[in-house]
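Notes from the pairing session

We agreed to fold both candidates in a single pass and log them together. This is the raw record for the first candidate, unedited. Please don't reformat it; downstream parsing expects exactly this layout.

Candidate A
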Amino acid sequence: MWLLDTFLPVIGITFLVVICGSYLLIHLAAVIRMRKQVTGRAWEPVYDVLEDPLVPDIAVFVPAYNEETVIVESVRSFLNLNYPNFEIVVVNDGSTDGTLAVLDEEFSLTELEVPPMLSDAPCEPVHGVYQSNAVENLRVVDKENGGKGDAHNAGIWLTDSELFCIVDADTIIQPTCLANMVRPFLEHPDEMVAVGGPIRVANGSTIDEGLMTRPKLPSNLLAGLQQVEYIRAFYSGRLGLDQLRSLILISGAFGLFRTDLVREMGGYDEDSIVEDIEFTVRLHRHLIDRDRPYRVGYLLHPLVYTQVPEDIATLANQRRRWFRGLVETMVKHYDAMFDRQYGRIGMFALPFFCIGEGIGRILEAIGYLLLPVMLAVGVVSLKPILFVFVGTMFFGVLLTWISIFTEVWSSGQYGHPRQVLKLMGLAVVEFIGYRQWRTFVAVQGLFEYVRGENSWGEMERSTLNTD
């Protein structure tokens, strides 16, 4: 009994120190990178990407499965992009609703002959390719359902563009996004292979003709808590990982990639339930295995918004799927973990995600379940447990507040004091109830992975506010 009372808290505290130390390192690295990017923007020479005749063509891929409520507004958003050479490719991935019909009604589609290269693409069978009569640079692919990665492959094997940008069907992009994202490819044309950027929550904001006109914090509590998560993940998490050259996740909601390289890799894994993290890890491994110098970038200032779930069932479904995808990727690429050949990807990034985001969640859930029993039978004392819980909560809230101030400083998106205070309050609420719920949802995702569950599930969409 004495050994348990002594060593369990010690083991727990040691584990927390390692995990918290890793998170602190990433957040501090994010502050350094943010300062560099903000300062660089202030001092960079006058250069207009739109006037450069050498800017590469970009294809914007929009995978759509049962997205009739948002697809037209999203396509309008993409059509507002201020970039000289781009096309939009909407991939209707076997929708059972009116997605294709509303696209036809709004943009007047004419069927084309399916290109031979698309017929051989690593994706489910394509039923048809359509050209818009209303918009010259809009094409639609209609295919059988195969998932998001499968839909991306259809676009990759259809386009002739040098770069492609992946987005979600509910993504709202501000006009300057592509011009900002393409800069690293112009600065490092031989090495840059992928660029990601932060995403904000669109819920509660007002959209007019595909443009974000009045960004606001969500009034829905669940959406507000996700806004806090997104700020922490995108502004501190991934920015810091990029500074540490350990970025292994470019969000499937927004990223820019080199087309020829992705074809060389065989495209996205059609069977992956969460295609973005698996694809980014495989991208790193593909280039490292071939000893090719490369860069993966992350920028602070693209303005991209996405709609998040506002009901508990849809959110739980999404988070279970995300955790299944994390486990799937860690298992698939376990052989690269702690392998010096893969540098910081193998020695830091993969172990961090596996232990911090994966194993840590499972141990946390086990702790929540066993703690009441252990306290009841006197195996452990309440005082050290409270110390660990309060300390962990304080540390998590502190890091989240740093992320919030990072976002406010760098973008000024939510600069009003009331907005900042609301975000800070949500950061506290997140660690009391919501974090514990999210942990148990992750465990459910683990059970689904063990059972071989591979379904995408339903994502309920609501119509965005429009003027």
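Candidate B (folded immediately after A)
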Amino acid sequence: MTMKRILVIEDEQHLLRNILKILNAEGFQAIGAENGKAGLEAAIKEQPDLIVCDVMMPEMDGYQVLGAIQNNPKTALIPFIFLSAKAERTHQRLGINLGADDYLTKPFDADELIAAIYGRFKKQEIWQSRMMALSETLTKMEKLLSARERATTGFATEFRGSITNINLALSMLASDASATPKEAYIKILKAEFEREIGLLNQMSRLQEVLTPDNVDLLMQFNLLHTKNGE
């Protein structure tokens, strides 16, 4: 398992050192930044797996850091946890509403910090798993729609040929009053009628077979070709 990299942005030097020590002891690769500006630069350069950031800092506070992180495509999806001495619910709600994933109030202990980090990583794993499942489902549906499109295109070609023959037979039958040709035209009409019934039955069975799971199986045994004929 790859070691998780965590960026800690905190202007209180003793607290920054303590947090880095806790994270390193837990097996994380901890990176420290002493202010918001340095933290933002480190986030872009290091691409950490998670950011722990103080709220109240000079020059660039935690809210500004979060906004800049979210506005950069390279860092927008990095999980973000706020640290703050402000315990009021309004401040916590503000941090969450701005897009932070969690909000810890100072003072906090090591267990609380580690639990928040692991909780965030767990939620991220669940989200990634759901995204992968959704991607697989969309891929299957894309294959299914493509397969049905190719199948219906083939049937449409067959139907057009059959309808052309029927129209031709009807035109000849309407313009010829003799008895002998009528039998031949009726034979053609009957044959094309049976052909169309057969095509409709095949299409009905094909609709039952072409499911998202079966498309991969059919392609595996070369029973269904791709658009490129592969």
